Amino acid sequence: MEAMQITIAHLLPDLLNLYGDRGNVLCMKNRLIWRGIEAEIVEHPMVESFSLSDVDIVFLGGGSDAEQKIAALRLSEYEKEFREYVESDGVLLAICGGLQLIGEYYQSDDESIKGLSLVDAYTKSGDKRLVGNIVIESELPGITGSFVGFENHGGRTYIGSHAPLGRVINGYGNNGDDKFEGLVYKNIIGTYLHGPVLPKNPILADYILTKALERKYRTPIILPQLDDTAETRSHDYLINRFR
Ligand code: GLN
After folding, report:
1. Is residue 194 among the annotated active site residues?
2. What is the tens place of the pLDDT at every residue in 200-214?
3. Atom of ligand 1 nearest to the CA of 96
């Protein structure tokens, strides 16, 4: 049987890549390769055009407000393609500024940046930045336990009727008020967790990889276990700091 293969698109890495976000892409690639699954990362910088038709995982990282504004304009050219990709169960991981970009709009201090409207979420910037380590309890279907990360955002996101990725145990989450963190819609996962988030939360990484493989190969996938001793230690270290 031919080896399975996954293509991961890192969109606008020259604009959207904060606090080690690229580590998520490397983590996904390595966790596939360690299991004998072929994996390729394709980076699409600002000046390049792209297509999502042969992509299995889309990654959007975080960015400053200035970078986000440029990214929003560029991505808006692909709104229809994004919608088709998401509605056909395409996997999309969006971190922080990326999460804000997939929503309806991001209202910064002086202007409103239109998002891709892939989800019914919106974001407004607030006075104080929400910064620090964060622990959330998973709300992902079938996944129990906690996810850890680092957040640093001025924006407050409201996710309407969408399910959150998790509930805040320590930290701020989407807006510092409703205890929701991130959002899940179809195979979109949006979150404020930098860190990067996936190496510290291998269960979340494998959830995303499983969704991508199941969509591509149309068969249930159970990924073989990996030795996650180091990953689990860094996850638990952060949890213990809050105790
Ligand atoms: N510019 C956004 C905010 O501050 C996103 C920041 C980020 O991606 N870390 O809310």
Report:
1. yes
2. 999 999 999 999 999
3. 8
